Amino acid sequence: MFTGIVEELGHVVATQDLPDAARIRIAGPIVTSDAKHGDSIAVNGVCLTVVEVENNTFTADVMRETLVRSSLAKIAEGDKVNLERAAAVGQRLGGHIVQGHVDGTGLILAREKAEHWEIVHIGLPPTLARYVVEKGSITVDGVSLTVVSVSEDQFSVSLIPTTLDLTTLGHRTPGSVVNLEVDVLAKYVERLAIPHLRAIAGEEAQ
């Protein structure tokens, strides 16, 4: 589990194509300071398992399912990435509950600059729209953000200077692909509510 509070901006050192998978090596001195084989590190919001740690870099394998659902399929050497180690029990939850299980991707549609922040508009896949609500939480490239506004096909978030300076979101331009993870609590509520809603609908139909 993660919190969506990015610890550092790392970069891709190397990539390797594998059958139905890929292997990537990423540089990040902070997240590798105590990392070991089997640990979890979120890369642009995708939970990956550390295979090897060496000289401030770590290697991870990316399975086909992850490549299909996330932007990691197009990651390349030199790309900057948001990095976060798994949350430790007892620490402050600065963002929200993030699993590192990307639900889909969206496109940066537009950016509006203000004096002290930026509003970023992001395309919203139809399958995820029902989970996104105004003032709710969403993870964009591993960054925990509050939804400013939402419609059926897009939402907006406000980025403070710290987020702009210390994460990839400060460098994303219109047309860039970003990873999206909706609030898992919304999915659980839906799962629990559906049988009751169907039962009520059935009673009303009688």
Automatic annotation (TrEMBL):
Swiss-Prot/TrEMBL keywords: Repeat, Riboflavin biosynthesis, Transferase
Catalytic activity: 2 6,7-dimethyl-8-(1-D-ribityl)lumazine + H(+) = 5-amino-6-(D-ribitylamino)uracil + riboflavin
One Pfam family here: Lum_binding
Keyword match Transferase: yes
Gene3D superfamilies: 2.40.30.20
Coiled coil: none
Ranges of the Lumazine-binding repeats in the UniProt entry: 1-96, 97-193
Class of enzymatic activity (EC top level): transferase
GO molecular function: riboflavin synthase activity
Pathway recorded for this protein: Cofactor biosynthesis; riboflavin biosynthesis; riboflavin from 2-hydroxy-3-oxobutyl phosphate and 5-amino-6-(D-ribitylamino)uracil: step 2/2
CDD domains recorded: Riboflavin_synthase_like
Enzyme Commission number, as recorded: 2.5.1.9
Function: Catalyzes the dismutation of two molecules of 6,7-dimethyl-8-ribityllumazine, resulting in the formation of riboflavin and 5-amino-6-(D-ribitylamino)uracil.
PANTHER family, per database record: RIBOFLAVIN SYNTHASE, RIBOFLAVIN SYNTHASE ALPHA CHAIN
Name used for this protein in its record: Riboflavin synthase
